[in-house]
Amino acid sequence: MIVLDLRQLAAGSGDAATGHVLAGLAVILAAAFVFARLAKSIRQPMVMGEIVAGVALGPSLLGLLPGHLTDAVFPADTRPVLQALSQFGLVLFMFGIGYELDFAHLRGSSCQVTVVSLGSMALPFAMGAGLAVLLFPWYDTTQLGTDGVLAPALFLGAAMSITAFPVLARIIAEGGMRRSRIGALALACAAVQDFLAWCVLAVIVVVVSASDLWSLARMVLESGLFVLLLLFVVRPGLRGLLRQERRWTAGGSVVQVVLVCGLLLSAWATTEIGLHAVFGAFAFGAAVPRDRVDAAAPQVAGRIEQTSLLLLPVFFTVTGLSVDLGRLGTHGVIMTVAVIVVACAGKFIGASAAARLSGASRRESAVLGVLLNARGLTELVILNVGLGLGVLDRRLFSCMVVMALVTTFMTGPLLDRLGPHEETPPAALPREGTEEHA
Predict the structure, then answer these.
(1) 102: three-class secondary structure by DSSP
(2) 399, 336 in Cβ contact below 8 A?
(3) How confident is the model at residue 156 (pLDDT cuts 50, 70, 90)?
(4) Does residue 434 have a pLDDT over 60?
(5) Model pTM greater than 0.85?
(6) How far apart are CA 202 and CA 195, in angstroms?
């Protein structure tokens, strides 16, 4: 009888948790929709509204209202489920980022793209690392998972040097720069920066996660083997499987299953290595032969993207639950201002100076500096990796989230002040990649 009561109690508890999860998801999707429409009404990318909605549902806004509403809407027993859903949406999104990478169109302009990309990464990296050293005495070391300032400095440098490629593509499209030379150049530089930034971050994760030299060597070796496996086994195998004449590729169902299983297994593999799951999904997306997928089942990539876009508001809310702007304090406000100033100065000066040195006009250089300063969604992904790695505390995490929002929101108004954009064909520069959803 006692056993039966316990089973009934467990079943009731499970039903209650399921109900809380479903209610929480309804609140997340409704808030994301409303805030996205508000963002669109002020000529901002809709994804920025969804990010703000995620922060608003956390302790920074909803949690300030009477009744502990954040805890009521998202009880502790639902958060592991929301975390799992957010990570699933995140790896689908990172697969799309890797899938859309295309460096084939850089021929003929690779020199300028390389100079601007490296310049707009090197200076923010150095300034971010220096800022971490200055702010380290204010870090809450009890929240760090590493000793010393080296790992936090390297991470903050990498986080400062990123540009949000998907959000940037949306800003360029909505700003009428899709066919302009400078718009194409900015997209090319952002794609290169994304690739380099994820490589740098992977190195940082390996260095921080390794407990000794043997662990470091093992992680480096396993990471190298994983990349070689993707390049020389997975990619050729997919090219053979996805040949257009194979009848089972018709309709795209099998192709979709192959790609989703592949990205999930790749995400699992990098987690087992000691890296974050996003690295595996990104690398698998980059290894997939896009020409074969587009020829055999062009609708599959869109399906995966739409699923990721449905789940990304959950990721934003999980992020927002870790952001508490009400507890920043005086030091936190100073840190926020310092982070925003360093982020803007490093990106703008690094990008615009490199552009001028590579032959761009003064106005083109200024526009490029403004565009590459947008961080948005990609910054949040990196910050969550860093928070899980223990290389920044929650206060600095909140400061960096504010910086990501500010640097992206300011892009549109600054471009308007710089005047109309010419529609010069982009010549050899790359076509636009994945746009953020409308």
Answers:
(1) coil
(2) yes
(3) very high
(4) no
(5) no
(6) 11
Neighbour count for residue 85 (Cβ, 10 Å): 19
Structure-block tokens of residue 92: 């689908």
Extract the tokens encoding 4.
């039966």
Q: Which amino acid is at 193?
A: Q
Asked if 159 and 129 touch (Cβ cutoff 8 Å), the reply is no
Q: How would you label 43-54 residue by residue, b for 16+ Cβ within 10 Å and e otherwise?
A: ebbbbbbbbbbb
Q: Three-state DSSP class for 16?
A: helix
Tell me how far apart the alpha carbons of residues 15 and 379 are, in angstroms, rounded to a whole number.
36
Taking CA 309 as the corner, what is the angle to CA 242 and CA 99, rounded to the nearest 5 degrees? Answer: 35
Rg (CA), the chain: 22
Query: Residues 24-40: what's their mean pLDDT?
Result: 95
Residues in the chain: 438
- The alpha carbon torsion through 194, 196, 198, 201 (nearest 10 deg) reads -130
Residues whose CB falls within 8 Å of the CB of residue 367, separated by 6 or more in sequence, listed in order: 182, 186, 415, 418, 421
CA 41 to CA 20: how far, in whole Å?
32
How many angstroms separate the CA atoms of 194 and 239, rounded? 25
Type of residue found at 133: V
Q: Measure the CA–CA gap between 242 and 414, rounded to whole angstroms.
A: 45
Where does residue 10 rank: exposed (0-12), middle (13-18), buried (19+ CB within 10 A)? exposed
Reply yes or no on whether the pLDDT at 405 is more than 60. yes
How far does CA 223 lie from the centroid of its chain? 21
Assess contact for 262 and 300: CB atoms under 8 A: no
